[in-house]
């Protein structure tokens, strides 16, 4: 493990031509302080948490710098709610540098909330404590669930005033990812007709992220296929766990298939396939059940941007791969949730009956599956009462349980339950839990953040000392309105 000044940097992105971004110095926060640091992310960087001191806070609040940093605001564009916007880029964040570990792994260090850049448009370049904590906890939650994601090393608060709907305080989030490249990076080069640079970026992506594709017959087509496949895997995981991103603009889509730019996200409470987590999404474009089709729309936009270097037939083939991979991956994840080791013809009807049951009775998505994960076959005939805290219609539950029992009667019970317990989390980051953590943090109490980090790192474990964090949300917790404001 290393101290902060022992980290090794290999800043490849900043070596690209200047049209890819602008060098910017972070603007300091006033009286910065550490809210939380994630030791699991620090470990990935080979960073010794015990060696960190006030220098860490000063450096990542913009009050000092570190040898090896090469801060750059990345330039990209993208489609926002279906409309192309040419004026995008890192408006409040900077790629500080790229850490290279002793194993040869490379990690971007990105500072969100670092102040004005040439791409801030009408913004102030700042992030607030509220949104920074939400992203910090969300990335930990997704990592614990095994869902491809960016990470967050730490959140730093301050006394800097920031104005949104009300006066808040500025913060920085230290984001860690294998890459911060987005679909929008390619769209920028395509729509500005910089096709040579488009090829350069594709070569860069293949060299640093898909080196095995360098020997492919059509490397660029193979790259797009890989992006389509990775995106399918990510969205399949979202749908299986009940996660809604909320702002699936192409500038928020990672070329590595990582869950990226957490804003007004939400996990399902009561099962509602049309769940809209973003209060600003008036048309429901990014509703939970629209995410698979929006993934295809976004990939089509990326494919269009790559048309100068990939044949149309190859683009269409890759998009078909996305749809096939999404279906295969989602089906497998959902079978795991029911402890099914193979696919049978009647499974489609069994799942449809289950989704109808959950929707018609407003049952909690996560708690239904977790409750089912503890019921042995011999108890399925009499176990409907176990769901009485989720619905009063236990007769409907019992009817479905009988169909389920028939399906699993030839499956080894211990293996079934073991698979279900590692496929159905006990803990998710419900919006009300994130809000309680924010409220406490704004009063100087970071205890709930640390408790949430503990359970979110291992959400399939019991954690009996934190049992209350697995409870049904209160009524007010289901009615929180979350928007893009941050």
Keywords:
486 residues, alpha+beta, six-stranded antiparallel sheet, two-stranded antiparallel sheet, 15 helices, 13% strand
| Number of E strands | 12
Structural classification: alpha+beta
Residue windows where pLDDT falls under 50 for at least 5 positions: none
Give the termini distance in whole angstroms: 34 Å
Describe this entry's structure for a reader.
The structure is a single chain. With 486 residues, the protein is of the alpha+beta class. It has 15 helices and twelve strands. The chain has helices spanning 39-44, 54-59, 129-144, 183-191, 195-209, 219-241, 291-305, 312-337, 347-360, 365-372, 394-408, 413-421, 431-442, 447-457, 475-478, and strands spanning 21-23, 33-37, 72-74, 78-80, 83-85, 93-100, 106-112, 127-128, 151-163, 167-177, 243-244, 266-267. The strands form four sheets. Strands 2, 6, 7, 8, 9 and 10 form a six-stranded antiparallel β-sheet that branches. A hairpin with a 5-residue loop joins strand 6 (93-100) and strand 7 (106-112).
């Amino acid at each position: 493990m290393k101290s902060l000044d022992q980290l090794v940097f290999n800043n490849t992105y900043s070596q690209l031509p200047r049209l890819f971004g602008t060098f910017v110095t972070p603007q300091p926060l006033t009286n910065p302080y550490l809210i939380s640091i994630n030791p699991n992310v620090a470990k990935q960087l080979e960073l010794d948490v015990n060696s960190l001191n006030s220098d860490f806070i000063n450096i990542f609040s913009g009050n000092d710098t570190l040898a090896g940093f090469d801060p750059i605001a990345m330039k990209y564009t993208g489609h926002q709610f279906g409309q192309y916007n040419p004026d995008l880029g890192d408006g409040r964040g900077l790629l500080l540098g790229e850490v290279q570990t002793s194993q040869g792994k490379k990690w971007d260090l990105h500072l969100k909330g670092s102040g004005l850049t040439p791409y801030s448009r009408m913004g102030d370049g700042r992030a607030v404590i509220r949104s920074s904590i939400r992203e910090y906890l969300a990335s930990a939650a997704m990592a614990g669930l095994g869902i491809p994601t960016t990470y967050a090393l730490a959140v730093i608060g301050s006394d800097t005033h920031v104005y949104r709907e009300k006066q808040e305080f500025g913060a920085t989030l230290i984001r860690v990812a294998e890459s911060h490249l987005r679909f929008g990076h390619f769209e920028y080069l395509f729509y500005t007709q910089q096709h040579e640079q488009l090829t350069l970026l594709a070569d860069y992506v293949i060299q640093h992220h898909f080196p095995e594709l360098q020997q492919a017959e059509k490397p660029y087509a193979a790259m797009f296929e890989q992006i389509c496949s990775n995106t399918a895997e990510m969205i399949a995981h979202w749908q299986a766990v009940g996660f809604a991103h909320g702002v699936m603009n192409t500038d928020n889509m990672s070329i590595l298939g990582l869950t990226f730019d957490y804003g007004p996200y939400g996990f399902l409470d009561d099962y509602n396939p049309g769940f809209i987590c973003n209060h600003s999404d008036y048309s429901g474009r990014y509703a939970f059940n629209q995410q698979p089709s929006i993934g295809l729309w976004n990939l089509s936009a990326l494919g269009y941007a790559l048309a100068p270097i990939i044949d149309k037939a190859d683009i269409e083939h890759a998009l078909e791969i996305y749809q096939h991979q999404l279906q295969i991956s989602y089906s497998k994840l959902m079978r795991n949730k029911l402890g099914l080791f193979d696919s049978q013809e009647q499974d489609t009807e069994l799942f449809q009956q289950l989704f109808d049951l959950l929707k018609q009775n407003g049952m909690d998505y996560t708690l239904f599956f977790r409750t089912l994960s503890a019921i042995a076959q011999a108890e399925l005939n009499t176990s409907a009462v176990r769901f009485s805290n989720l619905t009063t219609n236990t007769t409907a539950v019992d009817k479905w349980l009988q169909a389920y029992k028939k399906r699993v009667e030839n499956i080894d019970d211990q293996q079934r339950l073991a698979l279900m317990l590692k496929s159905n989390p006990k803990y998710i980051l419900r919006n009300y839990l994130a809000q309680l953590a924010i409220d406490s943090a704004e009063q100087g109490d970071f205890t709930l953040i640390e408790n949430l980090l503990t359970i979110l790192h291992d959400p399939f474990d019991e954690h009996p000392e934190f049992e209350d964090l697995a409870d049904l949300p209160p009524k007010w917790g289901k009615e929180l309105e979350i928007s893009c404001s941050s």
